[in-house]
Amino acid sequence: MSDAEETVEETSIPIEQNETRSMWPFLVAAGVIAAVILGIVIATLLSPVENNVTDRDRLSVAAGEFIKSRNDTGKFVPAVACKGFDENNSPLKIAGTSGKGITFDRIDDPVVDGDKATAQVTFSVDGAQSTSTWHFTKENSRWLVCGS
Q1: For the segment 72-125, what is each residue's pLDDT rounded down to a tens digit?
Q2: How far apart are CA 91 and CA 63, in angstroms?
Q3: Local structure of residue 87 (DSSP, 8 states)
Q4: Of 84, 49, 67, 61, which is closest to residue 132 (Cα–Cα)?
Q5: What gap in Å lies between CA 69 and CA 18, rounded to an integer?
Q6: Beta partners for 112?
Q7: Residue 114 · residue 98 · CB < 8 Å
Q8: Starting at the edge strand that comes first in sequence, how are the strands of the sheet with 102-113 ordered?
Q9: What share of the chain is helix, strand, coil (3-state, %, to 5)?
Q10: How much is the pLDDT for 97?
């Protein structure tokens, strides 16, 4: 250090810390967070997610699984179709013979009548869209694709 720096004396500034701080802001914030969490828990108990899924959503899942099974195996998978499903009446019969990948696009106009349903299913084969009426049957609380 140089002589000029040594001669400069540092003066300390006293800080008064006599004021007491309140815990109220912290307690209020913790209370708000607890109320929000409690509200979420109560809402979940009163309206479980499973009850918020519509038949349209379930039919979309059934159609998507049917198409995915065809893409994964290239063959008919009985687990995604109703009992007595006739592969000759498959909604993917024409697409399945092309050997190209099939993608599920959307489902429109679902009509549910008890354990039976129909919907307009749109899928693509190598970029070309096709829409047809698919039939579904509910077995063991799960929708499955049927021929008619």
Answers
A1: 666 767 788 888 777 766 777 665 555 667 888 889 988 999 889 999 988 888
A2: 10
A3: G
A4: 67
A5: 73
A6: 117
A7: no
A8: 102-113, 116-125, 128-139, 142-146
A9: 40, 25, 30
A10: 52
Distance CA 1, CA 10 (A): 15
The stretches of the chain forming alpha helices (DSSP H) are 3-7, 24-46, 55-73, 93-96
Please state, in angstroms and as integers, the Cα–Cα distance from residue 144 to each residue in 81, 116, 139, following that order.
5, 10, 7
Bridge-based pairing of strands 128-139 and 116-125 is antiparallel
The tokens for 36 are 């929000």
**88 C-beta neighbours (distance < 10 Å), count:** 7
Residue type, 139: E
Q: Are 95 and 125 contacting, i.e. CB atoms less than 8 angstroms apart? A: yes
Burial of 16 (0-12, 13-18, 19+ CB in 10 A): exposed
Conformational region of residue 27, where left means phi above 0, alpha means psi within -120 to 50, and beta covers everything else: alpha
Lookup result for tokens 């829409």: 131
**CB 126 within 8 Å of CB 98:** yes
Residue 116, amino acid: K
